[in-house]
Amino acid sequence: VYCEVDFQEDELVMKDQMLVGAQHSSNKLHLLSLMWQIDCLVCSFCFRFIGSIELQIGRKLYLQELGVSATDECGPSNGPGCSSGSSSSQKTRLPRDIIASLMNGDLQLPYSEKFPLPSVVPCLGGCKEAYYCSKSCAEADWDSFHSLLCGGNGSSNNTKAILKFMQHANDTNYIFILAAKVISNTVLRYRKLKAAHVQQLGKHELLLKAWKPVSMGYKKRWWDCIALPEDIDSCDESEFRMQIKDLAFASLQLLKEAIYNDECAPLFSLDIYGHIIGMFELNNLDLVVASPVEDYFLYIDDLPHSQKKEAEKITKSFLDALGEDYAISCEGTAFYPLQSCMNHSCIPNAKAFKREEDKDGQATIIALKPISKGEEITISYIDEELSYEERQESLADYGFRCECPRCLEEEHKGSSSH
């Protein structure tokens, strides 16, 4: 990726709209009655926080309450299928009618009007997994992915199979949801191209055209490129990689039961599925959107003493009930087409960075230093504070040896000292 204009230090270079993204499993709660529930209520397409400050707080408290109840039912053991309520049980617990008042809009917190959020728009298919900040985001997500992956009664999908796939992904690795979105997007693009009779192309050519937005990130298979965990001995590497491959196979079989399309059969091969997941392993970018609830409580804390004291008569009990969870951001991973084309450097001239005003899921690239027209834009895939040896070891997972000016200089110094 190269500059077409000059950029100054700290200047916004570009914002890149994600192709696919998903909240991390850390943003989900495992509840017996509801299986998995998203903790952060954000737009499923652009990842902006939605609803209201009251709804965000009330919903988080409601899910905390369900989590404690689920733990009580499971008993003291925190085995598979049970939620850990240790942190929740130490928090102040509010009456359920107060939590309900927050969620249904009957209770307004002081100064919350200074933090307006988009209204909640439900999924077009009626599922309880996807919500949006606008009708346009709901329609865009439906047209791009969700019409094939919706588990709502209003969709024409194989609901049970979709829910089974989603449950498996949430229980094992949420990266499978991203892979399913890529395949769904390609299938839907194929259908649109076919309906439009694009240049009278054959089925194979249409499928390749539909696949094109993903092709730039298509690299190694997941089980070949995933880094070996520190607790796995090198002599067990083959067995580990086979287990990863088997896990991907199990996920793919569930996905095929849910959305298989005969005309797009190549997309549902294990090889392609492995390459798609590998694309996220090598080209993903962290998705982080700061919670407005944190901004709200910080605002209350910064009020003049008399106003703060008055506001805290109402807000303190909610802050105590939330505990450290009040500041939880929406976190996940996403694939950004243009950002994925940016090469690595251990002395990058740009970085992905969320500014105060960046409230959605787009990738924001900021200049770290002046960048001239025609110069390549580089980012760092790793922590550039690491030593030369540690950097090279980390980058080996990406399949290359770095030869940026810094690495060449440090390599030369190292060889000269021997």
UniProtKB/TrEMBL annotation:
<keyword id="KW-0863">Zinc-finger</keyword>
<dbReference type="InterPro" id="IPR046341">
    <property type="entry name" value="SET_dom_sf"/>
</dbReference>
<dbReference type="InterPro" id="IPR002893">
    <property type="entry name" value="Znf_MYND"/>
</dbReference>
<dbReference type="InterPro" id="IPR001214">
    <property type="entry name" value="SET_dom"/>
</dbReference>
<keyword id="KW-0479">Metal-binding</keyword>
<dbReference type="Pfam" id="PF01753">
    <property type="entry name" value="zf-MYND"/>
</dbReference>
<feature type="domain" description="SET">
    <location>
        <begin position="204"/>
        <end position="382"/>
    </location>
</feature>
<dbReference type="Pfam" id="PF00856">
    <property type="entry name" value="SET"/>
</dbReference>
<dbReference type="InterPro" id="IPR044237">
    <property type="entry name" value="ATXR2-like"/>
</dbReference>
<protein>
    <recommendedName>
        <fullName>SET domain-containing protein</fullName>
    </recommendedName>
</protein>
<keyword id="KW-0862">Zinc</keyword>
